[in-house]
């Protein structure tokens, strides 16, 4: 029994706890909703400052750019309460606004009685759409647009068919990607039970060529018969519009519907946090999705009514904080300037946006003439954006927003260039050394030679500054080299400014034949042949066994200057000379057998003027003399120095003796015994030719070698 009683007590205690929990929950819920109601009741709409939302005028249709620092609206601030469009800006997130500036290029365009209104600024702030009754209209009112030029707006342009018709079109709103336009229209003047004018909402989309396609009516549950003032938000999927329908508070209320990824619009939700029993119209939301700007229709200020007794209502622009569950899809706003990196001038480009996962092209966003842009990308997609402008480079950047957690605003200036730097390194294909060459540039588009391309040369490397937008044919040529031709395509996608290309030019070759023979018997001799290219420092050695019959063939560079040295077998003289390849294809060399009284002229042995000091260029020939003495260790030679007849005979005699001694001293440095050398000076006594010209005098200033004896 006690156990049972205890169980009953336990059950009773549990029931009491459960009842207490239920009561607590009910109280909590009551308090929660009471607090919610209290918060809603305490939330006050905030009217814009009086300099913008004036009690003396009626303000309509506020519209914001993506950054939220520019607002354009309709107001009757003109002379005689004429309607027009005005612009104001903020630098403190909407706390204060500058005094509204009338857009005179629009307001003063038509006749004084023309109606202008329903403005909608593009999210990049560069295009302004509105309706007007200008004479160019196809119907009563048409949709027009103006583009920003610096801090001014262009004259109105009719957006034309198929959007405008012979009927009424007004209150346009263009999506952030510029691909969809929402607007209202009617074919007969319908009214609701409240006496309000009723309209329907249409949407027009751009086709693949960037033209507006035929507009279509939005389906139910958007259009039910009495809609007005659509505003597509920055996410491109959230639509706020005014409507008189069941569930509203009487007159026009603000409603929101979202376009699902299945292409269907959701059931509109009443924005009850802001709607009143009067008309609530013309909403606009910043790209961040936090603040709502809207029109509230209130009672006319008595002072205003005294001045304007016919005024029936007082419309002002208000703001309200948007609860989280009414927020648009989260997005990221890129904004900045597209400019030329060379001179910082603005570039009017196009930003093409794709879905990276599907490669589907989503939209093209035009950049204004002043280079400013605002690109809004909505959550849920991995984006790729490319920036393109005719005659300029391209830039690609990506942004993965598949899991975006919060709104972001990113400042991104984009620099483009209209010339590439093609760095050309031109090499000698044999020596792999940089060489200078001529460059001819031809446009493959016009087939014309281009002569005004800027070419900068740095350290033998050429930098060609080629304009983007063409295909080029470049011809690289140099005398005595084979020409090289290549194409360089800058007509399509260009991501990089600097390019490098190495070109190897192959030198033209000619075959040169050497005939080496005994000077007396004319029989062929084996010899070592050395060729030294004085232009390039190239050296070629031809071994003796290649020409057993005394005939040697070698390919040399056409047009090059060579120093030729032929080293004879033991018992023969050496030979040295100069040649220019191409002019002569056969080179005959007669080698003299070393016998007593054999004379061998030593070429290019030069001295400083009136001096026995040897000029440096003479050492090549002197080294050949040393080689001859070493290859033939059994010969004794005379080193005979001669002069021309300029100066006193006595002086020339002593000068020649001194020069002969200098040559002998040089040779002895290489372990050639003094006994094998007989230096002698002959002055001007043995000229090889007459001293009647400077050329002949130079021939007489010589050093000769004569074999005195051969010791076996």
UniProtKB/TrEMBL annotation:
Location of this chain's protein in the cell: Cell outer membrane
Bilayer-crossing regions: 20-41
Annotated spans, Disordered: 678-701
Tree of life domain: Bacteria
InterPro entries hit by this protein: 6-blade_b-propeller_TolB-like (IPR011042), Bact_OuterMem_StrucFunc (IPR050330), OMP_bac (IPR006664), OmpA-like (IPR006665), OmpA-like_sf (IPR036737), Sialidase_sf (IPR036278), WD40 (IPR011659)
GO CC, any one term: cell outer membrane
Protein name: OmpA-like domain-containing protein
Species in which this protein is naturally found: Flammeovirga pectinis
